[in-house]
């Protein structure tokens, strides 16, 4: 199973300090893993153990190359159709033969050399275009436009056509940055604040820095990256969720599946000036304890072992910077930093420690909510992921949820909203256990392997919570989330609320260490991991979630409605399939008769809710933009469009400010909200919930000047419109039966 985390990136100011000379020392190189053997074993596993049982063929080799080019050049900015035709003639008929013949390294190096040459050529061309402006921006008065996304457009026929594409792309980058600055300046003036972009470098230099960073990332690939790109092209040709992870990616995967990492407790961001910016610092973490790192500081070099062997990280990709900084528990790392406040350079030593990712753990709230003459005691259980420590010693979400549920039962909670929005999945066994907390005994999910053998995963025992349930999902709720939502729907145990459907991932992946498959004479260290699809899962009613997801009983407008995102939008997704319903599956039909009236009551509230109306309008506009897929290069046209959006935002913000003030007053009168985080479970009395001190404040973060100037009013009581409506729905359920 896999987990998808959706995170917003924030802009940070560039460092105005002069460049600092660095001494780059190279540590003794370790022997490379036997990537030729890795490639061969990988190809054998994919052919013999993957769910589809697809053998290598000339047609599949062509797909391997097409997938490689798509992954390396998703916006079709580096390879012309002429390039693709030439590559297809050379590699499209023998791609897989390289792997079988222990020539993976040869293939990886040759393909990467071609990609690097093409990408560098056009990035150099982009920089020449910037130089041709001689420090003066173009007039932006043409009637031309560019695609918002080039992912599915035809490739440029030849180099001349692709150079014109780059001409338009560079112009768009310049125009977009200029409009962003104009908007910031206007907002700052209206609010009597200083313009946050006034001290920034010129627009042309800003775009030049972005081009330089992209070129550096292209050229920094090592053999692990090259082999990973080739093997992932093979895996992605089988299905979107199989992949190869080299040693670095394997560690990231384990960190993602768990609930803590070993590091310095800082969130980092690749800055346009080439440095790595400290964007967040975990409270009480190693970086915070050392007291020498501040938000906005720029890291320019790393001594990963604290032994004087420095690595220059200017323009290095953020993943590789993070890999350098992470390490074993208790070890030390040195950072060379340019202070955001003083522009002084300093060296800082930090001892690595375990850093809990507390924003990714299960948490809850209990709400005493008055509606009319009745007060309901309701709960919200938020689960960002079905996390599990793959090494066996860390957090398990099922155990955490069990503790929270038992406290909710003790507190007399009548109904719960389980918030699975943006939960991309995780452990199959963890979700199996969780289903049992609500249904007691019975089959949870059906699983079919490549031999069409069917296994039915069961739970036994008594339920922990037998009250009313709403499962709140969106199209980013995937995999394990869909198993849970599907089981709750099939048993008639819960009402599914949210986007029209969930993501639609109905396949199971297993991670295996490739070292276990290599010959004894091979170097197994750093061999990495293969994650491949071995099963497809089915709901107990017989339907798969594959492609179709889990449909909502009550559909609510949301920010995700306007995003085209789902399994059906991915390349090479496996098809939908059905099985007979699971034996011993018995549905509780009491909720079925109530769904029409519950839906009608919700629709009435939603139609009268201005925030829901705004969400619908935003979604419609987003879908229209995606459908048109054009962005004007005329500054006046873009300014007019921006002016309309800003005016709409001001109008909405003004309306919300007045309405939210009234809503806050009614919440204070009609609601009491208690906090129930994991650290609160054993307390004799639950603390009151304070939205301004939410659990996500475990980290101090750089303030985004765009957000500060936008200054939109916060929704009262920490309850966004969808959560609030879900609480209304579950209270309707409590009052109905």
Explained architecture:
The protein is α+β, with helices and mostly antiparallel strands and 737 residues long. The protein contains 19 helices and 23 strands. The strands form 5 sheets. Strands 4, 5, 6, 7, 8, 9 and 23 form a 7-stranded antiparallel β-sheet that branches. β8 and β9 (345-351) form a beta hairpin. The chain is globular, with a radius of gyration of 27 Å. It starts with 34 loop residues before the first helix and ends with a helix. The model is unreliable at 1-29 (pLDDT under 50).
**Distance between the ends:** 36 Å
Radius of gyration: 27 Å
Protein structure class: alpha+beta
- Give a quick account of the main beta sheet: strands, pairing sense, barrel closure: 7 strands, antiparallel
Mean of residue pLDDT values: 89
Report the principal-axis shape. Answer: globular
Helix count equals 19
- Would you count the extended β strands for me? 23
* Proportion of helical residues: 25-40%
Approximate strand percentage: 15-25%
Give start-end ranges of low-pLDDT stretches. 1-29
């Amino acid at each position: 199973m896999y987990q998808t985390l959706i995170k917003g990136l924030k802009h940070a100011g560039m460092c105005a300090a002069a460049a600092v000379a660095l001494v780059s020392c190279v540590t003794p190189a370790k022997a490379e893993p036997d990537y030729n053997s890795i490639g061969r074993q990988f190809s054998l596993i994919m052919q013999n153990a993957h769910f589809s049982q697809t053998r290598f063929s000339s047609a599949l080799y062509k797909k391997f190359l097409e997938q490689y080019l798509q992954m390396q050049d998703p916006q079709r900015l580096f390879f012309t159709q002429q390039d693709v035709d030439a590559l297809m003639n050379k590699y499209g008929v023998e791609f897989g033969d390289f792997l079988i013949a222990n020539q993976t390294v040869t293939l990886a190096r040759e393909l990467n050399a071609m990609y690097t040459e093409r990408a560098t050529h056009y990035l150099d061309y982009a920089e020449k275009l910037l130089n041709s402006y001689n420090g003066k921006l173009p007039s932006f008065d043409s009637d031309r436009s560019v695609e918002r996304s080039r992912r599915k457009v035809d490739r440029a026929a030849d180099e001349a056509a692709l150079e014109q594409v780059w001409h338009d792309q560079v112009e768009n980058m310049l125009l977009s940055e200029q409009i962003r600055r104009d908007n910031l300046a206007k907002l700052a003036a209206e609010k009597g604040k200083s313009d946050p972009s006034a001290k920034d470098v010129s627009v042309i230099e800003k775009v030049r820095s972005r081009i330089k960073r992209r070129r550096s990332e292209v050229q920094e690939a090592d053999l692990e990256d090259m082999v990973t790109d080739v093997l992932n092209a093979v895996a992605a040709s089988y299905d979107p969720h199989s992949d190869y992870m080299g040693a670095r990616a394997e560690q990231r995967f384990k960190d993602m599946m768990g609930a803590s990492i070993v590091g310095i407790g800082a969130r980092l961001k690749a800055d346009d000036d080439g440095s790595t910016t400290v964007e967040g610092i975990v409270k009480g973490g190693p970086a915070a304890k050392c007291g020498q790192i501040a938000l906005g500081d720029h890291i320019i070099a790393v001594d990963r072992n604290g032994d004087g062997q420095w690595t220059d990280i200017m323009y290095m990709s953020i993943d590789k910077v993070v890999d350098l900084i992470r390490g074993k528990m208790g070890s030390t790392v040195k950072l060379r930093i340019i202070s955001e406040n003083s522009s002084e350079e300093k060296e800082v030593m930090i001892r690595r420690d375990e850093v809990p990712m507390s924003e990714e753990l299960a948490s809850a709230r209990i709400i005493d909510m008055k509606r009319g003459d009745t007060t309901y005691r309701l709960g919200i259980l938020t689960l960002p992921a079905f996390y599990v420590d793959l090494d066996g010693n860390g957090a398990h979400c099922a155990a955490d949820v069990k503790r929270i549920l038992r406290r909710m039962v003790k507190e007399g909670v009548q109904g719960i909203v389980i918030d699975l929005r943006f939960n991309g999945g995780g452990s199959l066994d963890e979700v199996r256990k969780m289903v049992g907390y609500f249904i007691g005994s019975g089959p949870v999910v059906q699983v079919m392997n490549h031999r069409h053998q069917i296994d039915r995963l069961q739970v036994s025992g008594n339920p922990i919570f037998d009250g009313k349930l709403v499962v709140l999902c969106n199209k980013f709720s995937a995999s394990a989330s869909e198993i849970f939502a599907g089981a709750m729907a099939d048993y008639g145990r819960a009402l599914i609320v949210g986007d029209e459907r969930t993501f639609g991932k109905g396949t199971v992946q297993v991670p295996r260490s490739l070292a276990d498959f290599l010959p004894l004479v091979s170097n197994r260290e750093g061999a990495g991991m293969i994650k491949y699809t071995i099963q497809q899962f089915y709901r107990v009613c017989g339907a798969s979630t594959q492609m179709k997801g889990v449909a909502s009983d009550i559909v609510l407008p949301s920010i995700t409605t306007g995003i085209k995102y789902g399994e059906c939008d991915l390349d090479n997704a496996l098809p939908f399939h059905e099985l007979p319903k699971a034996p011993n599956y018995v549905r509780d039909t009491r909720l079925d008769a109530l769904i029409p009236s519950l839906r009608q009551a919700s629709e009435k509230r939603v139609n009268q809710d201005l925030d829901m109306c705004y969400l619908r309008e935003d979604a419609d506009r987003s879908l229209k933009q995606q459908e048109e897929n054009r962005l004007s290069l005329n500054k006046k046209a873009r300014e007019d469009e921006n002016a309309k959006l800003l005016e709409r935002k001001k109008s909405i913000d003004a309306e919300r400010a007045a309405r939210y003030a009234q809503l806050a007053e009614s919440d204070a009168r009609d609601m009491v909200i208690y906090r129930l985080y994991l650290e609160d479970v054993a307390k004799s009395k639950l603390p009151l919930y304070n939205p301004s001190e939410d659990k996500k404040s475990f980290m101090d973060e750089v303030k985004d000047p765009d957000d500060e100037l936008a200054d939109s009013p916060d929704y009262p009581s920490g309850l966004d419109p969808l959560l609030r409506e879900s609480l209304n729905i579950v209270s309707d359920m409590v009052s109905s039966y």
